[in-house]
Write a structure and sequence with these properties.
single chain; 683 residues; alpha/beta; Rossmann fold; 3 domains; six-stranded parallel β-sheet; five-stranded parallel β-sheet; 27 helices; 13% strand; elongated; binds thiamine diphosphate; binds magnesium ion
Length: 683
């Protein structure tokens, strides 16, 4: 038994039962990850029962610490503590581990199980997203309680993470941890389970660096916790490290904790097999005997032990009540900020927020990235919760909010540094940027965006996918969205990216056709609160004359009639982004040949797919002689809209280094080339 202060025999028994439950749940399911949940049981127990500021009765409590299990495969580590602390999970849920419709799926899923702060499983994502949560926490205190001394505000809390070897091998954790060091995120506390085992065995087959030295070099506070003499987690040293981590508020902390996977199973301990397979009845019985439990019992939890661990509920209520009295005082003293907080919690936009967004007169050429930058600046004036940045391309992506300085710690020597600044410098770290945007969204109160070139959406795709899975209102800005970017050539020109992004379920791919569509797109994105990517042109595009063309309010429908045909439409041209103006020019030529032609602008196919079939049939009638898609990317996906006999004007190969106009002409995106294709097809 541990000699930890205030650690009772009941605590010791609770940990033993937690280890047994991890074995039982995997054994019953027939698959899963028992080893790490066994060895981490005392670690998670100590956190949830004694250190984490949380209220199981109110999993969304604003004042709570966040807990992220970055090694999501060890989901039982979390489920068992949620069961113990009284979040609503019960023994039957543990028995239903990894089965259809259960509250205990293979990996923790955000929005599915109360107390799960994010969906984890892809290694590295958890810790990187937690960095975003820690940044959001600082930004939010800047909105609500900027004058409070460090660590005294009711909005100050910690972001706790447990991560594994795989988490720290993945590149994204390095990207995010490096930035966390620069940002001096003192509210971020990571416990690294250094068990030196992954699926292929000893991690030293691939991972030999000095992780502590690496994190110190990032600017972190690193605490090494060696194992207890027999090899198990040294709970006394770990607890001291946790206490020290709470006191360190100037730097993020990494507690590098030595452990032995599957402790104390006699044969399975310290083996890769225990990472991902059931231990088997004999080994489970032997382990239970070692733990002083009845080897014949499964899913056991004596009433007195359960009553003891459920004490976490009372602890939570009392923590929450203390916070509430501070909160009431704060509300009285800060009525305007309290009103703001109410709006942010409700996820609402203030009345008239979009009154002053820029309008663009026809006859002018504006790059959609430039329009987006102007819309961002206008939104920033009315929404204090709106902040964001770029992966070192702010000038190119037009993502700067220049008025309020750069989000950097007070100690930073950089010009314009402000701990509550609204411009985030992500550095050239697209994957971390995506994860951080998700962390900011998960933290809950603010809205943020991050930009890079569209071609590098590939570098952040796992984060985009997680945003979609979690249904987060993360906003990804991708400029330089086609061969239209010109001379930088094929490595920088997206070709398959629009299709690849549209392939992600629950993700809005938005490619506005002119500057005014950009404004409308931003409005819809902020109102819808769904994961979205905004694709923007580097090159100037004509601003469409709205007195003669389709109404901008129709942008929200995803696709709409931009310019009607002279009669019943024989030809329907459907275009997105920079190809909309090409379609309008082609329409003029076709009409002059007596071919009745309609142009549809389709800034977002996902929004269009949500409209009713009547609207869809009206905009893109299957009765037209010919439906034609025009988009400077692969045709994949367009057949759904143009039908078997339609034509896709597309790009099925990589681009080249030349001017945008040369590339559009050479690759068949000139109005003449399009007309030739269409007239040939009609013959
Ligand atoms: C990005 C990613 N790649 C691969 C996997 C598959 N995978 C799941 S667990 C694991 C090994 C994990 O080892 P470690 O992180 O040390 O966890 P432990 O076995 O110590 O629990 C791998 C490769 C994954 N979940 N995520
Ligand atoms: Mg490991």
């Amino acid at each position: 038994m541990s000699n930890l202060e205030n650690w009772s025999a009941l605590d010791e028994r609770a940990v033993s039962y937690a280890r047994a439950l991890a074995m039982d749940a995997v054994q019953k399911a027939g698959h899963g990850h028992p080893g790490t949940a066994m060895s981490l049981a005392p670690v998670a127990y100590n956190l949830f029962q004694r250190h984490l500021i949380h209220d199981p009765a109110d999993p969304k409590w604003l004042g709570r610490d966040r807990f992220v299990l970055s090694c999501g495969h060890s989901s039982l580590t979390l489920y068992i503590q949620l069961f113990f602390s009284g979040y609503g999970l019960e023994m039957d849920d543990l028995k239903a581990f990894r089965t259809w419709n259960s509250l205990t799926p293979g990996h923790p899923e955000y929005g599915h199980t109360a107390g799960v702060e994010m969906t984890t499983g892809p290694l590295g994502a958890g810790i990187a997203t937690a960095v975003g949560m820690a940044m959001a926490s600082r930004y939010e205190r800047g909105l609500l309680d900027p004058g409070a001394a460090a660590n005294t505000s009711l909005f100050d809390h910690n972001i706790w993470v447990i991560c594994s070897d795989g988490d720290l091998q993945e590149g994204v954790s390095s990207e995010a941890s490096s930035l966390a060091g620069t940002q001096e995120l003192g509210n971020l506390k990571v416990i690294y389970d250094d068990n030196r085992i992954s699926i292929e065995g000893d991690t030293h087959v691939a991972f030999t660096e000095d992780v502590s030295a690496r994190y110190r070099a990032y600017g972190w506070n690193v605490i090494d916790v060696p194992s207890a003499s027999e090899g198990s987690v040294d709970l006394i040293k770990l607890d001291a490290a946790i206490v020290a981590a709470k006191l360190e508020i100037a730097k993020p902390t990494l507690i590098r904790m030595k452990s032995v996977i599957a402790w104390p199973a006699p044969k399975a301990r310290n083996t890769a097999e225990s990472h991902g397979s059931a231990l088997g009845a004999d080994e489970i019985a032997a382990t239970k005997t070692l733990l002083g439990l009845n080897p014949e019992e499964h899913f056991a939890m004596p009433t007195e032990v359960l009553a003891h661990v459920r004490g976490a509920k009372d602890r939570g209520i009392s923590l929450h009540q203390k916070w509430n009295s501070k909160f009431e005082k704060w509300q009285k003293e800060n009525p305007d900020r309290a009103t703001l907080l109410k709006r942010l919690v409700a996820g609402e936009l203030p009345k008239g927020w979009d009154n002053e967004l820029p309008q663009y007169p026809a006859g002018k050429d504006v790059a959609t990235r430039k329009a987006s930058g102007e819309v961002i600046a206008a939104i920033a004036k009315v929404l204090p919760e709106f902040w964001g940045g770029s992966a070192d391309l702010a000038g190119s992506n037009n993502t700067a909010i220049s008025s309020a300085g750069s989000f950097l710690p007070a100690s930073s020597a950089m010009k314009g540094a402000n701990p509550y600044g609204r411009m985030i410098h992500f550095g050239i770290r697209e994957h971390a940027m995506g994860s951080i945007l998700n962390g900011i969204a998960l933290h809950g109160l603010s809205r943020s965006f991050g930009g890079t070139f569209a071609v590098f959406s590939d570098y952040m795709r796992p984060a985009v996918r997680l945003a979609a899975i979690m249904d987060l209102p993360s906003i990804f800005i991708w400029s330089h969205d086609s061969i239209g970017l010109g001379e930088d050539g094929p490595t920088h020109q997206p070709v398959e990216h629009l299709a690849a992004l549209r392939a992600i379920p629950n993700f809005d791919v938005v490619r506005p056709g002119d500057a005014n569509e950009v404004r409308e797109a931003w409005k819809v994105i902020l109102q819808r609160r769904k994961p979205a990517g905004l694709l923007l042109s580097r090159q100037n595009l004509p601003v469409v004359d709205r007195s003669t063309h389709g109404d901008l309010s129709l942008v929200a429908k995803g696709a709409y009639i931009l310019k009607e045909a002279s009669g019943a439409p024989d030809i329907v041209l459907i275009a997105t982004g920079s190809e909309v103006s090409v379609a309008l020019a082609a329409q003029d030529l076709l009409e002059s040949k007596g071919l009745s032609t309609r142009v549809v602008s389709a800034p977002c196919l996902e929004w269009f797919n949500e409209t009713d079939s009547k609207y869809r049939a009206k905009v893109i009638p299957t009765t037209a002689k010919l439906r034609v898609s025009i988009e400077a990317g692969i045709a994949q996906g367009w057949r759904d809209y143009i039908g078997d006999s339609g034509i896709a004007i597309s790009l099925e190969h990589f681009g080249a280094s030349a001017s945008a106009s040369k590339l559009f002409a050479e690759f068949g995106f000139s109005p003449d080339a399009i007309v030739t294709k269409i007239t040939t097809a009609l013959k």
